[in-house]
Design a protein that fits this description.
Layout lengths: L2 H29 L4 H5 L1 H8 L17 E12 L5 E3 L3 E2 H9 L7 H18 L8 H18 L8 E10 L18 E4 L3 E2 L6
Antiparallel strand pairs: 1-2, 1-3, 1-4, 4-5, 4-6
Helix pairs in contact: 1-3, 4-5, 5-6
Keywords: Membrane, Transmembrane, Transmembrane helix
């Protein structure tokens, strides 16, 4: 191996090692308890970690889900006469669940991608559907792309997509004094606004 080639390989290896070290440090700081370093560089850490490397756990305790969420989508296409043709609802969460059920080696994508995308959207938008920061806009686009790609399996072309999220709180396992279980909490449906979809999205 020539000296220039060896230098190039050594430089590439050094860049890879440095990138891995930075990534490990950023993820560690994002899940570690709040400290001086993570608070000082919070913006840079969030930019690096979200939305693709977000972790749904904390360093010293798990962060269990408090509700079951079903994400549904429907699409709309503009007809030649100007009327909007709207499809039926597609249960994206049910598609993921069926891919995981009875699978000895379920995909991380089917288990977590849609669920975590919605959790990130909820964290960044709250009860409003206005993206008021760069991170919120990135997460909205991320959720839109996931929904559009999955809806495209059932509908070949469409101009807009709408999501509906049904949230059902997980009932407490505690029993009442008479021995009966607590009633199932009521579900809540949230309709997101119609989002325009370009040919690049689906």
């Amino acid at each position: 191996m020539s000296r220039p080639a060896g230098l190039v390989i050594a430089f590439a290896a050094a860049v890879c090692v440095a990138t891995v070290m930075v990534h490990v440090c950023m993820v560690f700081l994002s899940v570690a308890p709040p400290n001086t370093v993570s608070q000082r560089y919070e913006g840079r850490i969030s930019t690096w970690v979200y939305p693709y490397f977000e972790q749904n756990w904390r360093l010293f305790a798990p962060d269990p889900e408090g509700a079951r969420r079903r994400v549904l989508a429907r699409t709309a296409t503009m007809a030649p006469d100007g009327a909007r043709q709207v499809s039926g609802w597609i249960d994206l969460s049910a598609v993921d669940a069926s891919a995981v059920r009875h699978n000895a080696f379920p995909s991380h994508i089917n288990q977590n991608m849609l669920r975590r995308a919605w959790s990130a959207y909820l964290d960044s938008h709250g009860t409003r559907d206005q993206s008021e920061s760069d991170r919120a806009r990135i997460i909205q686009r991320y959720l839109l792309n996931i929904a559009a790609q999955r809806a495209a399996r059932s509908h070949r072309s469409f101009d807009a997509i709408q999501l509906r999220v049904i949230t059902t709180p997980i009932a407490s396992p505690a029993r009442r004094a008479d021995g009966s279980r607590s009633p199932q909490p009521p579900s809540d449906s949230r309709y997101l606004p119609w989002w325009q979809v370009t040919s690049h999205d689906n």
